[in-house]
Amino acid sequence: MLISVDLYTTLIPVIVTVLTVAVLFYAVSRDLRNVLAVSGVRRISEYVTLRCPTCGYVKVREFKVGDYVGKVDDEKCPNDGSSLVIVGIGKEQANA
Amino acid sequence: MAQVFQATPLGSQNAQQYLLYNIILLILWFGVFPWFYEMFQLWRYQSQVSSFLNRLRFFMNNNISQVMDFIANKVSEDKHLIEGRIRDLMEMVIIEPTSIEPEGLVRKYKMLVSSYNDRLERDVIRLMPSLGNNRPMVQNFTNVIDVLRELNFIYKVIDHYYRLAMKYKSYYLLIQLAAILPLLKEEIDALNGSVPVFLKGQPIGDSAGPLTVFRFKNLCSDLNVISNSVKDTYLASCMFKDRKIYLVKAEGPGGTVGHLDDAIKYIYEGINARPRLMITIDAALKLEGEESGSIAEGLGVAMGGIGVEKFNIESVATKYGTPIYAILVKMSMPEALNAMSKTIDEAVNKVVERLSKVVETYTEPGDEVVIVGVGNTIGVAQ
Description:
- The structure holds two protein chains of two kinds.
- Chain A has two domains: 1-37; 42-95.
- Helix content of chain A is 31%, strand content 34%.
- Chain A has one helix and four strands, in the order αββββ.
- Chain B is of the alpha/beta class.
- Chain B has two domains: 42-200, no CATH class; 205-373, 3-Layer(aba) Sandwich (Rossmann fold).
- Chain B has a seven-stranded mixed β-sheet, sandwiched between helices.
- In chain B, strand 2 (233-240) and strand 3 (243-250) form a beta hairpin.
C-alpha cells in the first residue's frame, strides 16, 4: 500500500461517515416533516347555539348545512313554544 | 497514523507518502467536501420546496374536487364546463392602478375592488344560473373562487422562483424560498381549510365583528332597519340606555364584507346624524405571544384590507370631528379564515359587554353612536 494504514486511519473515517449519514438522515427527515406535516388528526364538532327570544332558554345541537346566525329554527322552546333562534355557530377541536 | 505524521527527512519514501496524503486531504477538505456540502444543501432545500409545491398542487386539486362534490346535486349545468371555468377564474389577474400620480388613487382602488366583486359574482351566476336566486350561495361561492385564486397565485410565484433557482443553480435563492416556507405553510393551511367552511356557509373567525353587532342588537330596543340604503350592507338604528345607536355591518348570511364606508357616509350625509362616537370592531391577527380570543381596545378604524374603506371612514369621521374607538379580537390567520372556534365565539360575548361599557362611559344619554362590525359576515345574518 502506498499509504500506511493502522487502526486510527481506518476507524476515524468510518466513525465520521456513520455520523455524517446519521446527521444527513436527521436533517432531511426533519425538513420533510416540517414541509409535509399535517397537524395531528383532530376531532371537530361543529355546534349551533339556539336561544329562545322570549325566555332565554338555550340549547346546543350539531351544525347542519343551511344554518346561520339569526335563522329562526324549526325547533320550539320547551317552556313557551316560541321558535328558537340561532345565536352562535362554532367548532370545538380535540386531538384524537 | 502516528507513523504518517512523524516528521521524516525529505527525499525519503515516507516523505513522499506524507506529501501525497496531505495533498489528498487538502483536496478532500477544501475541494470535494465543500462541493459535496453545497450540493447536499442545494438538494435539501430543493426537496423542501418541491415537496411544498406538490402539497400545494394537491390542495388546489382537492379543493376543486370538494367544490364539484358540493355542487353536484345543487346545479344542473355541465360539471366539466364548470370545473374548466373555475380554473379560468383562478387565473384572473387584477392590475393595480398606477401610483405615479397619487391623486384619486383611493377612488380608483374602490372602483377596482367593486368591479372585481361584481364581475366575480356575475361570473358565478353565469356559470351556474340555477344559483341565481340564492344570493348567499353565490356570495359564498365567490369567496371560494377568491381563495382558490389566492392559492393558485402563491403556487405560481413559488414555482417561478423555484424554477429560476434550479435554472441558475442559485443556492441563495433556494435558501430564501426555504426560509419563508413555514410562514407560507400556515397561510396555505388557513386558505385550504377555509374552502369547506365557505361552501357550508359557516361563520369564520373574521365574522367576529358582524357577530358582535348581531348580539349587541339583542340588547337594544326600538330597532328600525334603514333598508336598501347601501348595497350588501345592513344599517339600522336602535336605542340603548337612552343613546341612539346606528348599527352597521355587512348584510348576511352570504359571505361579503359589504360597503361599510358608504353606509357611514349615508349616516352623516343621508340621515344627517351627528354621532358623538364611532366604534369599530374587527378581528385582528395576533402576535405569537398573544392568546387567541384576547381583546384589545384602542383608537382609530379597526379594519384590514387594502385601506380604501378605512381611508373613507377616517375622512368622514375627520370631517365631522367624530372620535373613533376600536375593539379588536385577536386570533391567528388559520382561526380568522376557518370555522369560528369556541374561544372566539366566547370572546364575542365579552366584546359585547365591553362595547356596552364603552358606550356608557364615553357618551351621554341623548347622544348618537355608530357601531361598525367589520369583517366577512358569512353565516351571520342580522
